[in-house]
Write a structure and sequence with these properties.
By secondary structure, the chain is of the alpha/beta class. It contains eight helices and six strands; from the N terminus they run αβααβαβαβααββα. It has a six-stranded parallel sheet with strand order 3-4-2-1-5-6, with helices on both faces. The structure holds 3-methylbut-3-enyl trihydrogen diphosphate (2 copies) and magnesium ion (MG).
């Protein structure tokens, strides 16, 4: 990873509420996912100007396989569509895309698309965009630990990825749902009632502002009180 990414914040978003957004409008849940893809575009475009260097988005959890097959295939189609439609824009905007999560249960065309976009965007230096697909944090921790010769905190952190500074979850739910459990050890958490399809650049900017207002103490005493 380049220092450009590390200079910025690591924001992670649990993009939740697509289904409820659609249901409230008398639309099929899939219409909510479609609108949710537009929110992804907005967030990716806004992130660098808000000081975000790494953006990790929860797109599909390991547990999401439990949804009806029609919804699962619609989500997979939307993911492919996003990758096809956005690849050129990601390159132009200096965004490097990486997928995290299992790949062996994804369709062969989706895996090859992911690999293509990862390769084509590999030189991006403005934003590292990590998309979690078929992802489980517990599984990621187990896999990382199994692959290490000797397990210690630094090695495991290195294997998993950067610590999260700011964790946002939309839709009013206040849980991690197996997302970045290790990496969120000291993350600032922001829960907003906004449904993901309605999440705007202003909402992301407000979350970043709120993050900067917080006093991150990491178990120590804040600077103002330690004198
Ligand atoms: C988030 O929206 C998208 C995914 C989990 C793939 P949901 O589909 O979970 O929407 P709700 O929570 O049912 O409203
Ligand atoms: C978490 O949302 C997964 C994603 C946003 C991709 P869910 O909607 O699946 O989580 P639960 O079931 O409410 O915990
Ligand atoms: Mg949900």
């Amino acid at each position: 990873m380049t220092s450009t990414f590390q200079d910025g914040l690591h924001a992670a978003i649990i993009m939740d509420g697509n289904g409820r957004w659609a249901t409230a409008r008398g639309l099929p849940r899939i219409a909510g996912h479609r609108r949710g893809a537009e929110s992804v575009r907005r967030a990716v475009e806004a992130a660098p100007s808000l000081g975000i260097g790494v953006l990790t988005l929860y797109a599909f959890s390991e547990d999401n396989w439990r949804r009806p097959p029609r919804e699962v295939s619609a989500l997979m189609r939307l993911l492919s569509r996003y990758l096809i439609d956005e690849c050129d824009r990601l390159i132009a905007n200096g965004v490097r895309l990486q997928a995290i999560g299992r790949r062996d249960r994804l369709s062969a065309p989706l895996v090859s698309l992911l690999e293509t976009v990862e390769r084509k965007t590999a030189h991006g230096k403005k934003l590292l965009l990590r998309i979690a697909i078929d992802y489980s944090s517990r599984q990621a921790i187990l896999d990382a630990a199994r692959n290490l010769k000797s397990v210690d905190e630094d090695a495991l952190s290195q294997a998993l990825g950067p610590d999260v500074d700011l964790l946002i979850r939309t839709s009013g739910e206040q849980r991690l749902s197996d997302f970045l459990l290790w990496e969120c050890a000291y993350a600032e958490m922001i829960f907003t009632p906004r449904m993901w399809p309605d999440f705007s650049k202003a909402d992301l900017a407000a979350a970043v502002e709120e993050y900067h207002r917080r006093d991150r103490r990491f178990g120590a005493v804040s600077a103002a009180q330690s004198a």
